[in-house]
Structure formats: C-alpha cells, structure tokens
Amino acid sequence: MEANGKEAPKEPVNTWTLAHPKFVMGKPMMTMEELASAGVNTRGLNKHYIFDAIHKENPSIVGEFKARDLHSGPGYFSVAWSDLYDLFNLDALDISLIRCLAL
Q1: What domain of life does the native source organism fall in (predicted)?
Q2: pLDDT of residue 33
Q3: In Å, how far are 51, 95, 99 from 47, measured between CA atoms?
Q4: Is the pTM above the cut of 0.70?
Q5: 61-75: string of b/e by CB count within 10 Å (b at 16+)?
Q6: 10/12 Cα distance (integer angstroms)
Q7: Each residue's pLDDT tens digit, 5-26
C-alpha cells in the first residue's frame, strides 16, 4: 500500500528472466531415451547436474574464462541450472539460451 491508501502498482512479470515453466529443480531434464541418443558432453553435463543440483542442492554451475579468452586475467561465471534447461530440451528459444550462448 502506498502512503495515500491506494494500492501500489504491481510490476509486470518479466518472462525473459524467469525460469522455464517446465523446469523443476532436482527433476531430470531429459529422459533416459533422450540421453542415450545425446552426445557425450550432454550426458556428462546431465550427470553433473544430477549429482551437483540434486545431491548438493546447488542451483548453478560455475564456469571459467581462461586469461587468453578475454585478454585479461581469468574470470568465473555462474549459470543457473534453470537457464540450461532449454539447452537440454531445445523446445524454446528464450533469453536463457541466448545468455548461455553469448558467454
């Protein structure tokens, strides 16, 4: 409520920054059949997600830029598992996918 007794205007929901509505933390992102036909790196990332996200309840994965990549010192970045959901499923092109590919 604002000071004059009126209800404060609600901020619009920004769907570009929300997790994919089908993403559920701790639930596998791909079926066993999908994983069987996926590449070795996808299976490795899925295995890391299962261990790290489910067993440690860690909401993100940390990556590293090498010094030569940025022409400066090394840097680290964090990507939420919910942002990687689209990479596992490729059923929507949203800002999560764009952010991950832009890194």
Answers
A1: Eukaryota
A2: 92
A3: 6, 24, 22
A4: no
A5: beeeeeeeeeeeeee
A6: 6
A7: 666 656 555 666 777 788 888 8
Q: In which residue are the tokens 């990556």 written?
A: 63
Q: Cβ atoms within 10 A of the Cβ of 76, count?
A: 8
User: Could you tell me the two tokens for 24?
Assistant: 């559920």
Type and span of the H or E element at 78: strand 75-80
SS3 string of 47-77?
Answer: HHHHHHHHHCCCCEEEEEECHHHHCCCCEEE
Residue (of 37, 35, 42, 40) closest to 84 by Cα position: 42
Q: What residue type is assigned to position 94 of the chain? A: D
Provide φ and ψ at 76, rounded to 5°: -120, 150
Residue 94, class by beta-carbon neighbours within 10 Å (0-12 exposed, 13-18 middle, 19+ buried)?
A: middle
Residues with Cβ within 8 Å of residue 66, at least 6 apart in sequence: 74
